[in-house]
Write a structure and sequence with these properties.
The protein is of the alpha/beta class. About 45% of the residues lie in helices and about 20% in strands.
Amino acid sequence: MTLELRGQQEAGQYVNGEKEVSEPNPLQSLAVLLVDDQPANLLALEVVLLPLQVPLVRAASGREALKRMAEQQFSCILLDVVMPGMDGFETALQVRETPLNRLTPIIFLTAADLEQDTVIKAYAQGAVDFVKKPFVPEIIRSKTKVFIDLHRQALKLVEMAAESAAQEGRERLSLLFENVQNISIFNVSPHGKILDWNVGAERIFGWPANEAVGKHAGFLYTENEVQLGFPEKYLREAKLHGRLQTEEWRWRKDGSRFWADVAITALKDMNGAFRGYAYIIRDATFRRLAEEKVAAARDEALKASKAKSAFLANMSHELRTPLNAILGYSELVYEELEADGDEHTLEDISRIRLSANHLLALVNDILDLSKIEAGKLEMQIEEFVLAQAIGDVVETARPIITRNENALEIEHGDPTIKITSDRTRLCQIIYNLLSNAAKFTTRGVVKLKWTAHSTADDGWMELTVSDTGIGIDAGHLEMIFEKFHQVPHKIGKHLEGTGLGLAINKLLCDHLGGTISVASESGKGSSFTVKLPLHISDPLGSKTRPKAELAES
């Protein structure tokens, strides 16, 4: 029997290989959940934690971990930060939405050095500690044991509270209460009278036990809240459903407030008779403030991004006017010099034209990016023959491809297929891929292959541009579509560009309802594949304008 299966059986999840159907108890298990996408890491954790003699449950992904947490409560979660799909931070955020484990402590496991903002974000999502990989077995075992022991104490507290209302039981319970100083725990009678008050409650609320015990729980609420029916509303809800959990601002004796994580559990005796409530309140102010800081930082970042996009759009627009003038006048001068046969000056004017065209292309990239980010990209949806559009782009890009002595190969699809999309943006995507392939390939082959399959109501086109150029290291593939990201190269010349072409392609594919992907190996070339629907009516996040209106602008 594996450790994982044994842990599940001991936790009461499986009987004879089948899932046991039973009503979950929020505090029924000391099990520890281990979350890592690497089986070797899971096995190492199991070996290290086996001496703790508690059930160890495996999860190989964030989604599997959430499934496990929906089935049972854990005393502690050891969560890997870097996982494919849903990473550790995203998983931790979802954990706080699971009824059984929203308060379960999380220890993050990471091999990376995290920045302060990332650490704050992690604590806001429920982290209690970080362990750096490779970890020291004694350290991670000790840290885990602390939370198992705390959970075991909580199990004892609830168990003792449910056993009997006798004085002897209360004395044993109070001894345990004294060991929990960071959590407020107190019992309330069926009518709302406070029966006991632990050291944690004294520390968090500031009220000593002799001033709290005997009072109605309503003294912890403001006059306005009492008039609105609190805490009676909470007590009725807890009695009806067995347990109530909420978060809210609460006030201390000195008038200061703290963000409280409140759990109210209805208690029953051994015969099932209702005997009151147990309050467990934790001061979650630090987490609340961290969440607010993260939210404020996010809002400021979004605001700054919008301002940046607006600035870039305005500047790009203003730059295009003088650039177009430079191009126009240089063209006139070039024609006059060519007529006069002034070859020496023609070479200088050619450099001016080349530089101006290059600068105009960069300005256009920045303008496109800023419009897409601001949600103001204007697109023209029309029906056209796909083969004709691709052919036009190929002829435009051919000089760029042959400049580096490359061969161009074309593998055509059905020449009769029509597509309803934005012709200009589709051509822009294809041109960017061809020019990108030409830039990183010398004396090689650039190949364009496309196919399309049309149905009555739907259909897709697939276009692949591949090359035999320098390729991309595996470590850069995930970032290849990020803005301003340029892959380091080992050839001895400067490759011009802003790192925006592929980023714009990704955004344009998203707007046209499609996808773009890459496959590459360093030194062996790259292959980019675009998949787009043959028929779209409203591109994502864009404004569509009639052809005549676009022509006028």
